[in-house]
Amino acid sequence: xSFQSVWYETKMPEEIxxxxxxxxxxxxxxxxxxGQVDNxxxxxxxxxxxxxxxxxNCWFSGLLHSYILKANNENFFYDIEGFEGDTIQYSIxxxxxxxxxxxxxxxxxxxxxxxxxxxxFIKLKSERIRKLSVSLQLSGEDEYEGGEMQFLxxxxxxxxxxxxxxxxxxxxxxxxxxxxxxxSGCRKSIVGWVVGPRWK
Length: 200
Description:
By secondary structure, this protein is an alpha+beta fold. It has one domain: Jelly Rolls (Sandwich), CATH 2.60.120.620.
């Protein structure tokens, strides 16, 4: 049986995560935009966080990718390629930051065919959709209060991912999830989306 999410409490040395964070200090961050849900406008009711973008050729994306391949080979068995847009996201949740229930991919996000057969053929053949989402916890559970990453399974049952520093969470991009409001401290993570051909 497969699961909609898996996680690995990597127990990687604190020094490695410290190096991640030191490098990320130089990544410019801005208010997180919600995307198509809100027509690319910032909506603090939906999401309040800071985000920055990093090229997926950075050295630590290889670590993420190795865990993604492990999870895919053991649990998901999806046809996947690389990170969406060859980028990964650096997310910062300060006090009162949150992200309400959402999915990273759903049918309305897919390309909608038009009456132009030639254009439809090209776009449908080249379309890549989010299949797996990944989140690396940079902050430990003692560094912030609240900010839990939670999921709803197919039976609408709520469950919470671990908050330990270095945990890598990989999940189906169609899974409903949220980040609860941070009550105090700061939650930092690296987030990415792995794409592949449209479902058939």
